[in-house]
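Narrative of activities, Objective 1.

The group set out to show that a structural description can be obtained from nothing but a protein's sequence at a throughput compatible with the screening campaign. Below is one input-output pair from the validation batch, recorded exactly as produced.
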Amino acid sequence: MLIARLIIWLAWRDLARERFFLLAKTAIMVGILVPLLVLFGVKNGVYNALIGEMLADPANLQIDTAGNASFSDADLAPLHDWPEIAFLTPKVRGQFDFVNIRAMGGRRMRPALMMPSGQGDPTLPPGVVLAGKGVAISAQLAAQLGLGEGDEVQIITQAEDRPRQLVLDMPVAVILTQGAVQGRAVLAPFATLDLIEAFYDSYSLPDHGITASRDLADRVATYEGVRVYAKQLEDLAALQARIEAQLGISTSARTRDVEALLGLGRKLNLALGLTAVLAALGLGAALVLGFWSDVARKETVLAGIALLGVPGRALALFPVVQAVITSVLGLVLSFVLYGVAGRVAGVLFGQGLPDGAALAVISAGQAVAICGTVLGLVIAAAAVAGWSALRLDPASVLREAG
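Output recorded for this entry:
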């Protein structure tokens, strides 16, 4: 332990005395690392902004079944256990999901699309649950009817040939943000849509004062399809294919746009990876030659230290300790200069990013990984020089020097 401390102190004193060589090696590291850090940070910033913008629209995670089909609870039961699915709800038949809606006591009436929803629906704001009779109203429909959260609305069916329409009085739980749902739409628990479908199928609804030729107790629930949201963008394409294979029906999703963005990320990662490998080879070669030349230049000094009783293995630590000090200094300067360059690039080129988004981003985990990789590369380069110090013959070196 005492010898190791002595070697560390001697290595540090030697670097302090030969500051020019220390600065030269540090400059090599900074010159290679800073451009790579800026490229990596900009790639992260721009790609994360694009991913964030895509995730901000829940429709990019949505998969809708298309066409006329008929599914039972048993058909849809396996889907509830799929880990790729973040939210799933059945859908009623398409001809029965349009209704008229008006504010309670109002005269203006607008047609709207009824959409099944429920707990965990990504279309709803975080924390909002449509419990009981609550509904969510699209921004366009709310503006046309002058609705606000907490108002009462009446949902009226469009079966003009019926002697009595089904009228549902429901509170507005939330007004959706602009773009969350397009057009005039109402999100309601699936039970509400199921009730409306039962009305169109001529079932009696005694709780609503409607009598018909069919008893509601005889009704067997069937569904036209499902409304599904994937947990993450990477799951969308595979989940869409799996649903189509399971249900034997076509689906619609924004898979092409999502795959194009994910493919761009993979290509950027590949390009940066190849650049980093080439840069690492160049940096490694420069450091190996640098540390090797240092050992060759200091052979006489190292031979003198060896004659004092310092074993060869401890002597091999000399270039390794200097390499660690050099790499720490280079990494600190590189990240400082990266921070400055990232801010300048953000001012010059970051106008198109969402508000508050940084153009260059390197997370703490990525920074630690970069530092670990660089330290490993530098220590490996120094180990080659340490090997030459280990093979040093003090007597021969001092005899040749004399």
